[in-house]
Amino acid sequence: MELAEKRPFNEKLQHALGVNPKDAKLSLTYFTVSFIALLIGGFLGLFQGLNRAGLMELPTWFDYYQTLTTHGILLVLVFTTTFTVGYFYASLSHTLGGLLPKVRKMGWTAFGAMVLGVVLVATTVVMGNASVMYTFYPPMQASPIFYIGLVFLVVGIWIAAFGAFINVAHWRKNHKGQHIPLLAFFATGVFVMLVFGSLGVTVEVLMLIPWSLGWTETINVMLSRTLFWSFGHTLVNIWYLTAISAWYVAVPKLIGGKLFSDSLTRLVVILLVILNIPGGFHHQIVDPGITEGWKFIHVFMSLSIGFPSLMTAFAMFAMFERTGRRKGGKGLLGWFKKLPWGDVRFLAPFIAMVAFIPAGAGGIAQTNNQLNQVVHNSLWVVGHFHLTLGVTVALTFFGVAYWLIPHLSKRVLTPQMNKLGIIQTIIWTIGMLFMSGAMHFVGLLGSPRRTSYTTYGDNATALSWDPYLILLAVGGTFLIIGVVLMVYIVFNLMFFAPKGNTEFPIGEPEADAYPTPKWTERWGLTIVLLILIVAMGYVVPIMDIINVPGSPPFITW
C-alpha cells in the first residue's frame, strides 16, 4: 500500500521537475566527458604556460606544440561542444516534455561519433603526427587520421543538431500557435549556427583528406583559411549564445527576479544567428589575397555582432536593478547590495558577464583594420581568447553546472559545496586576471603567440617579456587549482551529494509584459536571411581566391 501511494507522488514530482532518467543519463554522460576534457586540457595548459615562461622544459616525446594542439582541441572543441549538447538536450527535455525516443538515440549516436573523432584526433597528436594547432592551418600537414577524426566530430554535431530540430518540430506540431519555450528557442538558434557554421570547415576538411593522403599535390591555403574561419568565429558565438541563454533564462529565477523581455531575448538570438558567420573575416585582416574592400565590408559585419551584445548588457543590468529595488534597494546603487552574492549559481555567471565588457572591447579592437595589424600575431589575441572562452563562457558553464548537474542527478547543492564553489570562482577569476592580463600587455610589447619559450639570442626586447610571462605562469597555476576544484565539485554533485530535488530555474515574464510577436517563430525566414548574409559576404571573395595556386605540404615538427 505504501508503494502504491508513493509511486504517484514520485511521478508527479518527476513531471513537475521535468527530470526524465533516460534523458538525464544522456546529458550527464556528455558532462562527464566535458569535465574530463577540462581536467586534462587544464593540466596541458599549465605545462604550456610554464614552458612559455621558461620555467619548464617539456619532453621531446610530447613537446610544446603537441601540448598546445591537444590543449586547444580538448578545451576549444571537446569541453565546449559536449557541454553545449548536454546542456541543451537537458533543456529540451525539461521544456518540451522529454526527448523523443528516436532523438535520445540520436543523442547517443552523436556522442559515440564525437568520442570516436576525439580519440582519432588525440591519437595522432600524441604520436607526433599532427602538431598543427587546433586551427590546423595548411600548408602544415597532419596525418589523414587527424582529419578523418574531425569528420566524425562534425558528423556527431550534425546528428545532435538534427535530433534537436526533430524534437522542436514535434513540439510545435502539437502546440500550434504557441511560442517555443525560451530555452528551446536558444537551443534551436545554437544548433542552426552549428550546422550552417560547420559547412565551411567540412568542405575544408574534405579538401585536406585527399591532400594528406597524397592524392592531390597542393592545397589552396587562402581558401582553406577562409573556410575555417567561417566556422572558427561562429564557434565563439555559439559558446556565447549558449552562455547568455543561462543569463536570460536561469539567472532571473535564481535571484528572485523576472525576465526583462521575452521579445528582446528572441530578437537577440535571431540577430546572432543571422549576422554571425561573415564575422569570421576579421581573423583574416592581415591575410593577402583578399581585397581591402572586402576586408572593410567584413569589419562592418563583425562590428554588427556587437549590437545584440549591447542589448544583452542593457537587459541584464536592467533586470538586476529591477530585482534589487523590489528587494528594498534604495538610492543609485542600493539595488546592487541586494543581489545574492553568496550564491555561486549567481556569482559565477555575474563575473562572466562583467568579463565580457573588456573581452568585447578587445574583440572590437581586433576587428579594426589598423589595430588588428598591431596585435594579430601576438599574445594579445590569446589573452582576448582566454577572456572570452576562459571567463565569460567557462564561468557561465560552471554556474550552470551548480544547478543543472544536481537537478539531473537528483541531488542538491549543499552549503559546503556552494562555499567551495565561491572559492573556486574567486581562484579562477584571479588566475584569469593574471594570465589574460599578462598576455594582453606582453602582446602589445610584441611577444608572439604559438611559440615556445625563447630569448631570441638574449635579445633585449625578448628579455623584457620575461616578467609578464612569469605572471602568465602564475595565472596558470591558479587556474589549475580552479580546474581541480571544479572537477571535484562536478563529480561530487553527480555521485556523492545528498539526495534531493533541485529546481531547473526558468525565469518568468513580468506580469505586464508585452506579448511576443509571432514573427519570431518564423525560423524559415531567419535561415533564409542567414543564407543571404553569408552569400553576400562570401560568394565574391571565394570566387576571387578559388583559383589561387596551391601549396605543397610542410611538416615542421
UniProtKB/TrEMBL annotation:
<dbReference type="Pfam" id="PF00115">
    <property type="entry name" value="COX1"/>
</dbReference>
<feature type="transmembrane region" description="Helical">
    <location>
        <begin position="180"/>
        <end position="207"/>
    </location>
</feature>
<feature type="transmembrane region" description="Helical">
    <location>
        <begin position="28"/>
        <end position="50"/>
    </location>
</feature>
<dbReference type="GO" id="GO:0009060">
    <property type="term" value="P:aerobic respiration"/>
</dbReference>
<keyword id="KW-0813">Transport</keyword>
<feature type="transmembrane region" description="Helical">
    <location>
        <begin position="346"/>
        <end position="365"/>
    </location>
</feature>
<dbReference type="GO" id="GO:0020037">
    <property type="term" value="F:heme binding"/>
</dbReference>
<feature type="domain" description="Cytochrome oxidase subunit I profile">
    <location>
        <begin position="25"/>
        <end position="491"/>
    </location>
</feature>
<feature type="transmembrane region" description="Helical">
    <location>
        <begin position="426"/>
        <end position="448"/>
    </location>
</feature>
<keyword id="KW-0472">Membrane</keyword>
<feature type="transmembrane region" description="Helical">
    <location>
        <begin position="70"/>
        <end position="90"/>
    </location>
</feature>
<feature type="transmembrane region" description="Helical">
    <location>
        <begin position="468"/>
        <end position="491"/>
    </location>
</feature>
<keyword id="KW-1133">Transmembrane helix</keyword>
<protein>
    <submittedName>
        <fullName>Cytochrome C</fullName>
    </submittedName>
</protein>
<feature type="transmembrane region" description="Helical">
    <location>
        <begin position="145"/>
        <end position="168"/>
    </location>
</feature>
<feature type="transmembrane region" description="Helical">
    <location>
        <begin position="523"/>
        <end position="543"/>
    </location>
</feature>
<feature type="transmembrane region" description="Helical">
    <location>
        <begin position="385"/>
        <end position="405"/>
    </location>
</feature>
<keyword id="KW-0812">Transmembrane</keyword>
<feature type="transmembrane region" description="Helical">
    <location>
        <begin position="296"/>
        <end position="320"/>
    </location>
</feature>
<dbReference type="InterPro" id="IPR000883">
    <property type="entry name" value="Cyt_C_Oxase_1"/>
</dbReference>
<keyword id="KW-0679">Respiratory chain</keyword>
<dbReference type="GO" id="GO:0004129">
    <property type="term" value="F:cytochrome-c oxidase activity"/>
</dbReference>
<feature type="transmembrane region" description="Helical">
    <location>
        <begin position="227"/>
        <end position="251"/>
    </location>
</feature>
<feature type="transmembrane region" description="Helical">
    <location>
        <begin position="263"/>
        <end position="281"/>
    </location>
</feature>
<dbReference type="InterPro" id="IPR036927">
    <property type="entry name" value="Cyt_c_oxase-like_su1_sf"/>
</dbReference>
<feature type="transmembrane region" description="Helical">
    <location>
        <begin position="111"/>
        <end position="133"/>
    </location>
</feature>
<keyword id="KW-0249">Electron transport</keyword>
<dbReference type="InterPro" id="IPR023616">
    <property type="entry name" value="Cyt_c_oxase-like_su1_dom"/>
</dbReference>
<dbReference type="GO" id="GO:0016020">
    <property type="term" value="C:membrane"/>
</dbReference>
